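Need tokens for this chain, all 355 residues.
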Amino acid sequence: MNLTPENEQENRNVVPFYRSGDYFFHRGIIAYRKNHLKRAVKLFERAVKLTDQEPVFHVQLAAVLSEVGQYERSNDILEMVLTNHGDDQSECYFFMANNYAYLGLFEKAEEAAKRYMVLTPGGEFFKDAGDLLDLMQVEQNEAEADADDEEDWESFDLSSDEYIIEHGRARTLLRDGKPEEALPILQDIITEHPACWSAHNHLAEALFRLGDDSAFELSRNVLQEDEGNLFALCNLAVFYTMKEDDLSASPFIDAIKRIYPLDIEHHMKVAQVLAAVGHYEQVIGRIMRVEPFILDREPDLFHCLAVAHYHTDQYEKALFYWRRAEKLGNKAAAEILEKVEQGTLLARDVEYRLW
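Here are the structure tokens for all 355 residues:
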């Protein structure tokens, strides 16, 4: 059919379908949460191309590039963000610190980590930045001792590099459900650095997940040496609860319930542990204090929030948060929603597990 002038005018008024930078950014977040890192990089690159002035897009691209080992390119992007937007994007310093550490540039890593902590006290990555500095401080102290003993500096430098990388690798293995692979790495770290309490806590977790009850003694030893260590308290609360020893778990749970950390990572950890041990009354309030942009990066918190709402008889809100978690790639939420759809969901199916 031939177009009339009227048809032509109507055709010119059709608005073409346009996918914005926001669209590709959110698709990238979903891909990242599903651990499709190469696809996430491509989607974030597209988002940056379409919305070049949005610093968050650049920072997220840099973070994923770091995870795929492109540390130098990641730092180039982060430096560009700081040049264009200044210290308002302070998280760039934290990401750069990690990149420098992996590249073996420890002085630059220390400088960047300290810069982040000065600019953002109590920020999202404050605890991680402190852990990184602690690791490098341990190595610096050992370097001085080695120098006194006239030991070879190059040998220490290699050890320093391996120490930081191996500790990070062990944590990643635990997150990926591979405690048996994390175990020997953590044991080696503790042999070399017996006062590294975070490694002790990770080792206790790995042992427990592998069915080794020496995890209890290890966690108690941490509390003896470092009184009030939050992660050791959390470990014992979870370990005893999973062993169905509520009496032994109770003092550790009560201690955790009295703690309101300023550090965001610790704050989220307490909420997740309280959900895992079935004390839901505080979970909702604690998670709702977390900034929305952090929640959007942590779909597991939406699942945690949904479980807490379910067990406090707020079923519609539970469904709302499970759907948000599923949209961001959370598998546990997806499994529960499938059972809801099938009409087979039972109360015993609704639990929050840390691992």
